[in-house]
Every structure is written in structure tokens, then in C-alpha cells.
Design brief:
Blueprint lengths: L6 H4 L6 E6 L8 H15 L3 E6 L11 E4 L23 H11 L5 H14 L7 E5 L16 E4 L4 H11 L3 H10 L2 H9 L5 E3 L2 H11 L6 E3 L21 E5 L9 H12 L6 E5 L7 H8 L6 E4 L4 H10 L2 E4 L8 H8 L3 E5 L4 H5 L7 E3 L4 H12 L2 H18 L2 H18 L61
Parallel strand pairs: 1-2, 1-4, 2-3, 4-5, 5-6, 6-7, 8-9, 8-11, 9-10, 11-12, 12-13
Helix pairs in contact: 2-16, 3-4, 5-6, 9-10, 9-14, 12-15
Length: 486
């Protein structure tokens, strides 16, 4: 029986009990993990009770936030990605589904996490006022309202954008076919998205893409910008600027991030500036085009990569740079832009996707360049390196913009408004609009109605066990999905 929704549940003053779902929650894997960590912290500071329910690699949470882990088989973990589990590792039919997805060159994690989350929450009816899914978009989410849970879903941007860019950059038919299969889960995400009733996204650009790519009604999508931790990401005059240092973030080495265009710009810029260093926060693909370009252009001593920095190390790195650069072809928001501006570091940013919504007007709070244009990047970077007064002016205006528009507290307050709207509406069953044809994968959701292809399945209780954090390795796997910065 569904939980009842009454006046007490919708009181605007009453603290809420929130389940925040993250199928890959580790902030070192990208912007979605950062979103989960900071949103959960700020919701707790507002007085709400937050429990993050995460698949591997697991979320990092702050004091006061409860973390519950839902282990998977973690088939893409280091050092043995694409491994075949031993028979004793199989616990249930969801594990079988996970292996089957991998063996058919797909990416099963959004589906299998959604089913594990459904099973977990089915055993905990009445413990939460609202469930907030962070872009899992698996069939399991569609059953949560039937369990009595009002559902709010964040979609940072449609992964179909990543899919189109990746396939467009592929140079062989085999690679294109592999990517088509890997991104097959986007069909599920489109079907699920079109049936959701309360969607939150991070920018106006993302909202337009969600409506266009995923078929979600505009009236069901609310823009709630994310923010920077402006207490931590703040200027510090005691940290010296390193002459010629440029910092950029590439949480995934994929064409979407535009890193290769920045590398090409740096090769041109080096002829004009003797003291030049690019620090990339992220890991490159061992056999990818970025490392090949660095070798071809002789930039090995000019560019270095760093990863798994602590928050304090990341902040000090940004502070030490004369310029921060966001060269992405597309972003649904751009946390790196907001964090650099909050630190008081001058910004060069592309106009891809929602980046202008964050970075602001060209020449006022940043220098803006067209996406995918190495020459424009070279010119903007060179102009800033040569003009310390312009750097200082952009840095001051950039921080003021972030303080006014992009803080995690504002994000939390506006997200709670959507929770209360979902509570007032009650646990509405998802619409069947946009459901489309049923594929073999979608039929896995039959278990939610007790019609499993593996026999009748009970919701059961929480899954136990552990798994090591991982991103699929660049050398053998298609790119990790949904790990880019918001």
C-alpha cells in the first residue's frame, strides 16, 4: 500500500527525510559525485535528514550525512576491468543481468543500480519523505512512486550529447559500432526521462537539451543551478601565482572536454611565451589522442596531469594559476568554471553548452572563445598572460558573480522547493507517454511488478558487501559515462 500524503508531510517548515541516489557517487569520477557531496551537505545544514545511497565507486559524504552502499560486481574496476566474476560472486539475478550487459558490450550500471535501489527502498517503505535520483534514469526508478515515494530526478545533461560527440569523433566503423553498443543504455534513459513528473536540471541550456533529446515536457523541468563551495574555493593572497601557469579540469578524457584543442593552442602559445605550464586535473587515456598530440607537438615538459587531489590541494592549485581554462565543446553547467571564478582566478572559457550561463559576459567576467577553436584559445590565453590588470579585473568580477548566483546553499534551498512540490503532488505513477517499444533490457523492469524473467523475485532487504572504486580504463574500454563535470 502506498504511503499516505497528508498536511503534515507537506508542511513547509518540517524537516524532510531524503534518500539521494547516486549510481556512481565518487567525486573523483566527475561532477555528478561533486554534486551529491555538496548538495547532501547543504541539505543537512538546512536541517534535513539525508541518506546517500550509492553504487561503486562510492560517494564521499560529509559529517552528518549517512552513506549506504549498494555493492555491484564492479566489472570495470582496476586492475582487472571486464573481468568475468567467479560463480561464488553471483548473489542474485541482478548480478546475472550486470554480467550479461557487459558481455554484450553495453554499460549495465544505470539499469542494475536502479534495480538494486528499488529493492533496497522496497524494504524501507515509510523511512523517507522523498527520493532524489541523480541521473541514474534506470527502469527501477519508475517503480518508486508505486512504493509510496515521491520522486525528484536531477538530469545534468542528456548523455545523448556525449554519445553524438563520441561517435562523431570515431575514426573507424568498428569504433563507431562499439560506441553505439556502449551507449545503448541511453535508450532506457530516454524512455525513463519521458515518464518522469519532477525533473531538476542545472542550466537553461540543459533544459532545452532535455526537452529536445529526451522528450520531457518543459513544464516538468525546473532549472536549479549548482554552485561552488565559496568558503573553500576562495582567494588567498598567501598563495603565490606561478608565472605562466594555466590550469584546466578534464574529469574524463573524451572529446566533449575539448582538451586536445587546448593542447594545440598551447603549442602555438609556447612560441610566444617562454614560461608556460599547463596543469590538467584528470587522467589521460594511455593510447588516446591527447597524449599522442602532446608527444607529436613536443609538449611533454610543458603539460602535466594530476589526479585524486584533496579539496585543499585542488583549491591551492587553482589559486596558484594565472589562468583557468574551460575548453569544453559542451557542458551542462561547468563546476570547474564556477570554482575557478570563486578562487579569484581569471577565466578563459568556451561558449559550449551552458558555460556562458556560468562564466558570464565576454570581457567582463571571463574571456569567451568559440568551442573547438585552438587559435581563439591561443589568442585569449596570450592576451591574459600579457595583461595582469585584465587578469585582476576578471578575477574580481568572476568571484562576485559566483557569490551572487552560484552557491550550494542556494542550490539546496531551491531543491527543497522541488521536494515539497513533489510531496504536495504525492507519489504519482510515472506517465506512459514516451515509453516507446519494449526492448529486452526494458523487460527486466517486469520484476518490479513481480514478473521477472528469472522467476518471481522478492524485494528483499539491503544488499551487503563491498567493491573497489573504478573508472573503465581508457586503453580497453569505451569512455566512462556520466562522469563529466556538471
Amino acid at each position: 500500500m502506498n504511503a499516505q500524503v497528508g498536511p503534515a508531510r507537506t508542511s513547509p517548515e518540517r524537516p524532510l527525510r531524503i534518500a539521494l541516489l547516486a549510481y556512481r557517487g565518487d567525486p573523483y569520477c566527475g561532477g555528478q559525485g561533486v554534486y551529491v557531496r555538496h548538495l547532501s551537505r547543504e541539505l543537512t545544514r538546512l536541517g534535513h535528514e539525508v541518506e546517500v545511497i550509492s553504487g561503486p565507486p562510492y560517494a564521499v559524504v560529509d559529517e552528518g550525512v549517512k552513506l549506504t552502499t549498494l555493492p555491484s560486481l564492479d566489472l570495470y574496476r582496476e586492475p582487472d576491468p571486464f573481468r568475468l566474476p567467479r560463480l561464488r560472486e553471483y548473489r542474485d539475478w541482478i548480478d546475472v543481468l550486470e554480467v550479461g550487459g557487459m558481455l554484450t558490450a553495453g554499460f549495465p550500471e544505470p539499469l542494475t543500480f536502479s534495480l538494486r535501489a528499488w529493492r533496497h527502498l522496497a524494504a524501507r517503505r515509510g523511512e523517507f519523505d522523498v527520493v532524489h535520483d541523480n541521473q541514474t534514469l534506470g527502469y527501477g526508478q519508475l517503480a518508486l512512486p508505486r512504493l509510496g515515494f515521491p520522486l525528484v530526478t536531477t538530469i545534468h545533461h542528456p548523455i545523448t550529447v556525449d554519445r553524438a560527440l563520441e561517435i562523431g569523433e570515431a575514426t573507424t566503423l568498428r569504433r563507431k559500432a562499439t560506441l553505439h553498443r556502449w551507449y545503448g543504455f541511453t535508450t532506457m534513459q530516454k524512455r525513463v526521462s519521458a515518464r518522469l513528473t519532477e525533473v531538476v536540471t542545472v542550466s537553461g541550456s540543459s533544459k532545452a537539451e532535455i526537452v529536445d533529446h529526451l522528450g520531457v515536457s518543459p513544464s516538468r523541468v525546473t532549472v536549479v543551478p549548482v554552485g561552488a563551495d565559496t568558503d573553500r574555493f576562495a582567494p588567498d593572497p598567501s598563495v603565490a601565482k606561478v608565472p605562466g601557469r594555466i590550469v584546466t579540469t578534464a574529469s574524463a578524457d573524451v572529446p566533449l572536454k575539448g582538451l586536445i584543442h587546448l593542447v594545440e593552442a598551447l603549442a602555438k602559445l609556447r612560441a610566444e611565451h617562454d614560461r608556460l605550464e599547463l596543469v590538467v586535473v584528470g587522467r589521460p587515456k594511455g593510447d588516446g589522442p591527447v597524449l599522442r598530440a602532446i608527444e607529436r607537438l613536443g609538449l611533454g615538459s610543458t603539460i602535466r596531469f594530476v589526479s585524486e587531489l584533496t579539496d585543499d590541494e585542488l583549491v591551492d592549485l587553482i589559486r596558484s594559476a594565472e589562468i583557468a581554462c574551460v575548453p569544453s565543446l559542451y557542458e551542462g553547467f561547468s563546476l570547474p568554471a564556477a570554482e575557478a571564478m570563486a578562487c579569484g582566478t581569471a577565466l578563459v572559457a568556451s561558449t559550449g553548452g551552458a558555460i556562458p550561463e556560468v562564466a558570464g559576459p565576454d570581457g567582463v567576467t571571463c574571456l569567451a572563445v568559440p568551442p573547438g577553436d585552438p587559435e581563439a584559445l591561443r589568442a585569449a590565453l596570450g592576451r591574459l598572460l600579457d595583461d595582469p590588470e585584465l587578469r585582476a579585473r576578471l578575477a574580481e568580477a568572476g568571484r562576485a558573480r559566483v557569490l551572487e548566483r552560484f552557491t550550494w546553499r542556494n542550490t539546496a534551498v531551491r531543491t527543497v522547493e522541488r521536494y515539497r512540490a513533489a510531496l504536495a503532488a504525492g507519489p504519482i505513477a510515472p506517465s506512459t507517454a514516451g515509453a516507446g517499444r519494449r526492448g529486452l533490457t526494458e523487460r527486466a523492469s517486469d520484476v518490479l511488478l513481480g514478473r521477472s524473467p528469472f522467476g518471481r523475485v522478492s524485494a528483499g532487504g539491503p544488499v551487503t558487501g563491498g567493491a573497489a572504486p573504478h573508472r573503465p580504463p581508457a586503453s580497453s574500454a569505451p569512455p566512462a559515462v556520466g562522469s563529466g563535470n556538471s
